[in-house]
Amino acid sequence: MTKVKFGGISGEQLRQYIERIEQLEQEKQDIADNIRDAFAEAKGNGFDVKVMRQLIKIRKMKPEERDEQETVLDLYKHALGMLPGGGERDKEAA
Amino acid sequence: MTKVKFGGISGEQLRQYIERIEQLEQEKQDIADNIRDAFAEAKGNGFDVKVMRQLIKIRKMKPEERDEQETVLDLYKHALGMLPGGGERDKEAA
Amino acid sequence: MTKVKFGGISGEQLRQYIERIEQLEQEKQDIADNIRDAFAEAKGNGFDVKVMRQLIKIRKMKPEERDEQETVLDLYKHALGMLPGGGERDKEAA
Amino acid sequence: MTKVKFGGISGEQLRQYIERIEQLEQEKQDIADNIRDAFAEAKGNGFDVKVMRQLIKIRKMKPEERDEQETVLDLYKHALGMLPGGGERDKEAA
DNA sequence: TTAAGCGATAGTTTCC
DNA sequence: GGAAACTATCGCTTAA
Questions:
Q1: Backbone dihedral region for residue C48 (phi beyond 0: left; psi -120 to 50: alpha; all else: beta)
Q2: Is A13 on the interface with D (CB under 8 A)?
Q3: For residue C80, is it within any domain?
Q4: C-alpha span between C47 and A66 (Å, rounded)
Q5: Nearest nucleotide relative to C29: CA against C1'
Q6: Which residue is nearest to nucleotide E15 (CA to C1')?
Q7: From A54, which residue of chain C is nearest by alpha-carbon distance?
Q8: What is the pTM of this model?
Q9: Residues of chain B contacting residue D91, judged by C-beta atoms under 8 Å apart
Q10: Is the pLDDT of residue D41 over 50?
Q11: Do the domain assignments include residue B4?
Q12: Measured between CB atoms, does D82 come within 8 Å of chain A?
């Protein structure tokens, strides 16, 4: 028989899947390296990498979920008195 | 009213959760500091910190390693015909 | 040359360090579990865990670094025209 | 002016970095999707995805595993006097 | 030679 | 449970 079966599975087919996925993961890693290089280059030109990441994250969010997030956060800040107008003015207890 | 509500949430209850979690995180950080001190002390006595970390990792991996990696490695070898006894037996494929 | 000790007393001392650190890491893990439970309980009472995490992170930041962070983020938003009054004045300059 | 500066940063340059990184992240995500599809297809052909992941991880670990873990394990055994050659060399601790 | 910045890497945490 | 992001550590290079 051509395809040797072990436990009902084809070793050859398994090998093909594995190698294909490993190839894809290699490509993914290469791109990840490119991203890292881009950040490094930006950093070398004086940009703040951490802030850039925040920016990208914000741009990726849909406007509605971004607004929702901010609304709830403000709500909680008020509830903890971390914002003016939240009743108790308890800014820094630490 | 006793419990001041902001947008339907209880500020006091929220505050209690937040402060409790912050307290726990502080304790966790203290222990992390102790761990760092222990490594520093070991280093001061001539031990190699990097090797110690690898050591601890290996010791931690041991139980799961036996339950997962070795078992899967056997499966793998069978599937690829790398082990004797993997012949033509029809075992159940998970 | 690294001063690695082999055998005898040094091995025993190494073992003591390892076990002490493993004990500390166990305690750290226990506290991490408690934190997870606290979040789960809060969630069960209707709080938004994700927002709570943001809140705690904000409270953990020093006021100066929090301001700095927000300032730079706003600056970048303006530079990308993501805010009114920012890039609208000269969106396609290059 | 050519490069619009906001607080000393170049908006145009920032935009280029951001968009380039977002492009790269999109490509990375596409490949991640391909990987997911490959796993799904394999699953459809009767393979166990979880086992496949462990397999790939093991194959990836192999080179470093031999260079690190086994070496460190030997070091460990030496340090605890579990192997010959770990004599009684007890050097001065700094 | 040492201290300090910087880049690489491993561990931790968070999101899906 | 797996993938991604953030953080801390480690080693290397450079300059004093």
A1: beta
A2: yes
A3: yes
A4: 18
A5: E12
A6: C50
A7: C73
A8: 0.81
A9: 46
A10: yes
A11: yes
A12: no
* Residues sharing a CB contact under 8 Å with residue B78, sequence separation 6 or more, in sequence order: A6, A7, B85, B86
Same domain, A11 and A43: yes
Residue C56 inside a domain? The answer is: no
pLDDT tens for chain C, 94 residues: list them: 444 455 455 788 899 999 999 999 999 999 999 999 999 999 999 999 999 999 999 999 888 888 888 888 888 888 888 876 544 444 444 3
Q: Give the total residue count for chain B.
A: 94
Contact B24/C31 with Cβ under 8 angstroms? Answer: yes
How does pLDDT run across B7-51, given as a tens digit for each residue? Answer: 666 899 999 999 999 999 999 999 999 999 999 999 998 888 988
Total domains in the fold of chain B: 2
pLDDT digits (tens, 9 = 90+) for C65-76: 888 888 888 888
> φ, ψ for residue D74 (rounded to 5)?
-65, -45
**Pair B11, B4: CB distance under 8 Å:** yes
Neighboring chain C residues of A80 at a CB cutoff of 8 Å: 55
For B70, the token pair is 């070795």
Host domain of residue D7: 1-47
Closest listed residue to residue C87, CA positions, set D18, A57, D16, D6: D6
The residue count for chain A: 94
**Percentage of chain D modeled with pLDDT above 90:** 37
B71 and B31 housed in the same domain = no
Q: How much is the pLDDT for D82?
A: 56
Name the residue with tokens 């393979």.
Answer: D47
Q: How far is the CA of D52 from the C1' of F5 (A)?
A: 25
Per-residue flag: B29 CB under 7 A of strand E:
no
Token pair belonging to D58: 């093991």
D80 — contact with chain B (CB < 8 Å)? no
Q: Closest CA to E7 C1' — which residue?
A: A40
